Amino acid sequence: MPCAPNMEATIFPNKKRKFHQVSCPHAFFPANQFRGKFFGTTSIASSIRKSAAGSFGPELSKKLSQLIKIEKNFERSVELVARERRVVAKQLSLWGEENDDDVSDVTDKLGVLIYEIGELEDQFIDKYDLYRITLKSIRNIEASVQPSRDRKQKITDEIAHLKYKDPQSPKIPILEQELVRAEAESLVAEAQLSNITREKLKASFLYQFDALRELSEKLALIAGYGKALLELLDDSPVTPGETRPAYDGYEASKQIIIDAENALASWTLDNSYVKEPALSLHQTVDDVYEEHQAEDAEAQWAEHENQQ
Which residues form the signal peptide (predicted)? Predict the structure, then answer.
């Protein structure tokens, strides 16, 4: 079965990576597609990582440390999915090349799009990791605050112990002065924790949601171009002995791939297809009800309070 025209120049030519040819001259895939950043991702190893996550370090930062390590496991899983996606793309092309011209050409181009999904998932990991790294800033400040909390608690316990055992101990006034200084230091540390937690929490999830939005919208684009490729297939039934018309969709499929590449390359958050969500946030009873309903709602609430 003859292969479709050579597609090396149309398979996302702006991507600077080495390609090697497989059995069909129009199918190309990166030579290092089977390499991964992580190895040995077995269920046992994953279980060990999850059980050990957050087991060490200051008590205050343990839960966030666990979240950060679990997110790392999530990234490993996405990386595995991306790698398998590229294997799927190659196998689809290899299968399709032995079919009729239209099936061979369309499956080859579908393989290109599916391969690109794997590439996008790899890019998603890099951008998603910004979210995880930013969370580390909160974990670090939590870890730095723990000593000041421990010191204040230790002095408080010592004072309580001395007051119970030896109320006249001369150490009590000294410890009380130390407690004042410790509380002052703790106030500074707690204020930093409060500020950094809110700042970095907001920044980190903005990274995550932007990464999710980019991946989702680009996947939607690829799905649209994939459906356009399917329209090139003549799926009208033929009777035994009847010959299908010759396939003439090579140029069209080539252009669809080029259009897909251009659409993906030109996508930015600023020209995102999904607009900001319409929110229905209500702060007071007047925002929820019409004026004549507000009084009834307030009266019902007052009656409910009286019954409690």
Answer: none
d(CA 74, CA 135): 15
Sign of CA dihedral 194, 197, 199, 202: negative
What are the structure tokens assigned to 185, written together?
């230091």
> pLDDT tens, 234-258?
988 989 988 889 999 999 999 999 9
Give the CA distances from residue 84 to residues 36, 102, 118, in Å, rounded to whole numbers and listed in that order.
11, 26, 8
Predicted TM-score (pTM) of the model is: 0.67
Residues 47-75 have pLDDT tens digits of 555 555 445 556 777 899 999 999 999 99
Give DSSP secondary structure letters for 250-294: HHHHHHHHHHHHHHHHH--STT-SSPPPPP----SHHHHS-HHHH
Which CATH superfamily hosts domain 19-147+188-277? Arfaptin homology (AH) domain/BAR domain (1.20.1270.60)
Rg of the chain taking only CA atoms, in angstroms = 31
Long-range contacts at 240-248 (CB < 8 A, ≥ 24 apart):
244/100, 244/102, 246/101, 247/100, 247/101, 247/102, 247/105
DSSP string for 27-66: -EEETTTT--S-----HHHHHHHHHHTT-SS-GGGHHHHH
Every domain range in the chain assigned CATH 1.20.1270.60? 19-147+188-277
- Which residue's structure tokens are 């996008």? 120
In angstroms, the CA 120 to CA 258 distance is: 17
For 21: left if phi > 0, alpha if psi spans -120 to 50, otherwise beta; the answer is beta
Looking at residue 52, its amino acid is: A
Q: How far apart are CA 190 and CA 186, in angstroms?
A: 6
